[in-house]
Amino acid sequence: MIKNKLLGIPYKIWIWAENNPLKAILIAGIFVRLLVVFLYRHVTLYPDSEDYIVLAERILSLNLSGYEGQRSPGYPLLLAIGNISHIVTCSMQLIAGTVNLLLFYRLSLSSGLSNKVSLITTLLLCCYIPAIFFEVAILTETITLLSITLIFYLFVRIRIGQSKQYILLSLTCGFLVLIKPFYVFLPLLLFLFSLSGNTSIKTVFFKSIYIAIVPVIFFLGWSYVNKVNTGHFTSTTFYGFNLAQNCVSFAENTTPEYAEIGNIYAKYRDNSVSDKEAAMTIWEAYPELEAKTGLSFPGLSEKLYDYSIATIRMNPAAYIKQAFVSWRDFWKTSLYWEYDSFAISGANDIVLYICYAERVLLQLIKILFVLLIPYNIISAIRKRRVEPQVVISIIVFTASVLQAMITYGTNSRFSFPFEMLVVLAVILNLRNIRIKNKRFI
Questions:
Q1: Of the candidates 58, 69, 64, which has an alpha carbon nearest to the alpha carbon of residue 227?
Q2: Could you list the mean pLDDT of each consecutive 10-residue stretch along the chain, which spans 441 residues?
Q3: What is residue 44's DSSP assignment?
Q4: Is 136:335 a contact under the CB 8 Å cutoff?
Q5: Are 332 and 340 in contact (CB under 8 A)?
Q6: Is 154:168 a contact under the CB 8 Å cutoff?
Q7: What angle do helix axes 115-126 and 86-110 make, rounded to 10 degrees?
Q8: How far is CA 330 from the centre of its chain?
């Protein structure tokens, strides 16, 4: 009798979860986060973190004069709201991570998945620990993930006629661009998708144009702020350094005009004493390049951009090969943590094994997603209908190509904000294939 009662408990819990999906997701999300925070009790800082903190301090002092434009203001605004407190910022990110799960569940429903499948998928993603380690780090990934999930949720609801919140969608896209200007391509693609499949293009055009206008204004506006401060009209003065990272394997094969830069770059690349990855070589060479050229950071970035363009033109095959490596790395998974910083002894090894298993599973899903991209595009052309998995496939593939073209190093961080969408797209594909096969049985 007792055994039967015990066996019935999981079933009763599941029935309750099905009837109260948002509460179940909220409880699961909070529980897993509290567990990780209890075991870790550490805020992870990276070199990028300092750049965000510097801009946050300037925002708090209402003084951007002379700022060299390394970062855009989206994430530093969050830091400023938290008074640049690491604890407050990570608390807000943990809340954002939980809200993101609720949004993903609603997105899954809006995309056509059943309540049961949407709930199971979301509860499994609740347990994806590498995502939580981003939430306890001073990095942009968690807020970027929340913004992208909200963007897709709003877009899908607009597409199926359940919402007309074009302005909110546009503002969210604008905020995403302020977090990372790289994503300016996303609202432009969403605008084009909005026009597809509509008979009244003129009416839809004037509604959908808002999706692109605000992000472009934000992008150009911040670029102008950098123009005022540095003399360079750019969304980030990292652009030259980023592109130069793609030249690391052929740095010395450049024009006579940039021979000195190429030789210094190659010298650090060939330095066997260094334990840094090859992609970061340009940053090792930065102090010597700065001393040799006598240029400021923005000026040197522009010089490196010109060097990169000239060098790439001389080595197109080598560049394509390097870009392919960056593209391949985009599809890898990330784990940003400090293994030795756990508060509970021995917990790091247990969490490591769990994260390893989760990342292997996600890696397989990503591979399947890549294989399904051609299928989704061809299917959309045949049906003349753009479904959510098609939008996800084209946008994520575009992101993978663009990031591969402009930089090399930590490429998997570019894919992290899309990982939940990748999972959703694969499930939608499997559902459609299953339905299609049933028709032929």
A1: 69
A2: 58 88 96 96 94 96 93 96 96 97 97 94 96 97 97 92 85 96 95 76 77 94 95 94 94 94 92 69 93 94 96 96 94 94 93 96 97 92 88 96 90 92 96 67 30
A3: B
A4: no
A5: no
A6: yes
A7: 160
A8: 10
